[in-house]
Write the structure tokens for this entry.
Amino acid sequence: MTTPLVLVLGDQLSHDLASLADLPDGSMVALCEVAAEGRYVPHHPQKIAMMLSAMRHFAEERRERGLRVHYSALDDPDNTQALIPEAERLAGRRGEGPPSGRVSTGEQRMNRRDTLGARAPVTLYHDGHCPLCRREVAWLSRHPRRERVVLVDIQAPGFDAEALGKTFEGMMGRLHLSDADGRWFIGMDASRALYAVLGHRRLVWLSCLPGIAPLMDAGYGWFARRRLRLGRWLERRRKG
């Protein structure tokens, strides 16, 4: 049985990462320092140094928790210096094919501005038990371009996340959206893609700027971890 090779990116250094939940025995977590990741958008050298330091600490913490971790250092002579080729090299060393489906293309790094190219109709997977999510769904149902969005409630009876190559826990943890070309956008990128197909492209472009994008991504992560509590608090305030 092939076990997952789980690729963790430099902006996914969270112990709550969905792809690290309930890993089968023998799974390997991979973190890769590659030159291409420092060039896909302009970065200050100090920011790159801080990111690499955070990745190394995260890898060591994963090892201390008993996980098998491979770390490709930037100066490794065998490093391909590009994310996907490096992941494929690691999979080959394990005698496997490409990285496991446990890491979907939606988990891989894409240029944030790729969200501007999301093609309608898109499918938005939302949590029907979340008060804040229900508010957004109500807003979408009134939007003049609502025909561009198909809404799927992941809490509905019969919904099967595994049929999509996902886990229910992962889809609860972060917003998921797929476009007409089958591309997955996850987390803040799902919001960007949604707003792009609804015609709010200028806002999406602004959210992709180097000085703003990390703040937006961090803010989304904070919100996603607390959305249920925030929603219940707002409902209590409204009823009170």
About this structure: The chain has two domains: 5-107, 112-239. The two ends are 55 Å apart (CA to CA). Residues 112-239 form a domain with the Glutaredoxin fold (CATH 3.40.30).
